């Protein structure tokens, strides 16, 4: 191609690129990536005073001179997108437990920008909670590294982004030279709601004009994996041109509280996020994310039956001296997990505790009661260190008695991880049953 034709091509290309800046209808999203170069070339054609061209004849090619101007595309800030929470608002956990919610955040701008992510209380009042803690407990950066800010705000962190020119129907997208904007290999990114992991970024070359020589731009390319894998992404059948490719940030918000006043506690928080550029374009707040902290709700009943008369369990019964009575205690948890659960009782007045005859004997001591959690039944003996436990590490219950005479204290330590000196955890929905016998004096 001769000099004249090269410059005509260069001029046309420069004008087309210059008209490529615009906005999507109804949005503030740029169609050209920040740091892209707009190279515009103009030329002038002429012949000499005799009407002759470069070869000295009227029919010869005209003389040509050219000039160029270059513009670097600037950032057009936009409010980010925040999705979440996961799991959804309205979770219920045990009093004193911690509920973790996850949020995803990415950019809609045409380049890298700084952002803030904030959680705070809402107009909906927290109720019946103490020791409330709502913090951003974990941030996962696009490259997979993490931080534990332990704060209600993460400020001035950078999200890299660009605008895609085209995709190759395999695993690669292209952006203008120099506009990868901090997107790097290993980053997790998102395009139109689909997440990917960056395989590699190839820089390309900048457009340049010098005298009558044009160096054409070679676009930067970004090859992609399926999210979180090393499998090449499949971009066939999709058109990603004009869409933002953005780094992906993950935020975990931890909420901890203790229910008080005998009621289930409730806490609320709101998520806000904005860009530090252009006055802080912000998201619509994600409001009133609610967590219920369920109070422990143990109920206890005690029934009796006259074994000698083969009577059923009831709230009351009758018997003659020398007859045997059997007591049944039930402890039911209709709320959240209860810990350090101990049951205090005593040998009833005018009776003597039965030890051995009802339930047999067991190595280290005489059995005087049984504890059942709906799955396992254990024998409780007068030797507090020798209860018969089922296999495994989770206990059902222990017990001890000061003696067998009327008024002697009886204690039962029940629940997972209970010991012969302390109660354990009675989980929500579990019922424990305790049985022991006495004879009427």
Plain-language structure description:
It is a single chain. With 441 residues, the chain is mainly beta. The protein contains one helix and 30 strands. Strands 3, 5, 7, 8, 10, 11, 12, 13, 14, 17 and 18 form an eleven-stranded antiparallel β-sheet that branches. Strands 21, 22, 24, 25, 26, 27 and 30 form a seven-stranded antiparallel β-sheet that branches. A five-stranded mixed β-sheet has the order 4-20-19-6-9, with no helix packed on it. The longest helix is centred in the N-terminal third of the chain and has 16 residues. The protein is rod-shaped.
What's the short version?
The protein is 4% helix and 46% strand.
How large is the share of residues in beta strands? over 45%
* Number of strand elements: 30
Strand count, sense and barrel status of the largest sheet are: 11 strands, antiparallel
What structural class do helix, strand and pairing data support?
A: mainly beta
What is the 3D form? rod-shaped
- Overall pLDDT metric: 86
Number of helices: 1
How far is the N terminus from the C terminus? 121 Å
Over the alpha carbons, how many angstroms does the gyration radius reach?
38 Å
Features:
441 residues; mainly beta; Immunoglobulin-like; 3 domains; rod-shaped
């Amino acid at each position: 191609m001769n000099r004249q034709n090269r410059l005509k091509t260069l001029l046309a290309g420069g004008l087309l690129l210059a008209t490529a800046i615009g906005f999507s209808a109804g949005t503030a999203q740029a169609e050209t990536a920040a740091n892209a170069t707009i190279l515009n070339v103009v030329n002038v054609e002429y012949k000499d005073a005799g009407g002759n061209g470069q070869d000295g004849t009227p029919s010869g090619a005209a003389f040509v001179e050219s000039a160029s101007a270059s513009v670097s595309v600037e950032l057009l800030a936009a409010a980010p997108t925040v999705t979440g929470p996961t799991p959804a608002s309205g979770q219920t956990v045990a009093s004193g437990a911690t509920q973790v919610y996850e949020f995803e955040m990415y950019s809609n701008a045409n380049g890298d920008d700084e952002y803030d992510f904030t959680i705070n209380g809402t107009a909906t009042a927290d109720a019946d909670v103490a020791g409330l803690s709502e913090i951003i407990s974990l941030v996962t950066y696009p490259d997979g590294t993490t931080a534990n800010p332990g704060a209600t705000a993460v400020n001035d962190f950078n999200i890299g982004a660009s605008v895609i020119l085209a995709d190759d129907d395999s695993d690669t997208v292209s952006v203008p030279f120099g506009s990868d904007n901090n997107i790097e290999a290993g980053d997790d990114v998102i395009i139109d709601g689909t997440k990917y992991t960056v395989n590699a970024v190839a820089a390309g070359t900048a457009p340049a004009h010098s005298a009558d020589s044009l160096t054409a731009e070679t676009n930067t390319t970004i090859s992609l994996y399926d999210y979180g894998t090393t499998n090449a992404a499949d971009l066939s059948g999709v058109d990603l041109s004009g869409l933002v490719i953005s780094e992906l940030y993950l935020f975990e918000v931890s909420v901890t509280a203790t229910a008080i006043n005998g009621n289930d506690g409730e806490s609320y928080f709101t998520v806000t996020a904005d860009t530090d550029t252009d006055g802080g374009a912000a998201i619509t707040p994600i409001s009133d994310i609610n967590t219920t902290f369920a109070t422990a709700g143990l109920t206890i009943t005690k029934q009796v039956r006259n074994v000698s008369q083969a009577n059923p369990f009831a709230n009351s019964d009758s018997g003659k001296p020398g007859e045997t009575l059997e007591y049944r205690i039930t402890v039911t948890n209709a709320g959240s997990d209860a810990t350090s659960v101990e049951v205090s009782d005593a040998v009833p007045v005018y009776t003597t505790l039965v030890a051995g005859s009802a339930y047999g004997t067991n190595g280290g001591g005489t059995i005087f009661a049984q504890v059942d959690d709906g799955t396992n039944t254990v024998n409780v003996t007068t030797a507090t260190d020798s209860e018969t436990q089922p296999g495994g590490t989770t206990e059902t219950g222990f017990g001890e008695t000061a003696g067998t005479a009327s008024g002697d204290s009886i204690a039962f330590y029940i629940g997972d991880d209970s010991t012969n000196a302390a109660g354990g955890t009675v989980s929500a929905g579990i019922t424990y049953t305790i049985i022991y016998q006495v004879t009427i004096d």
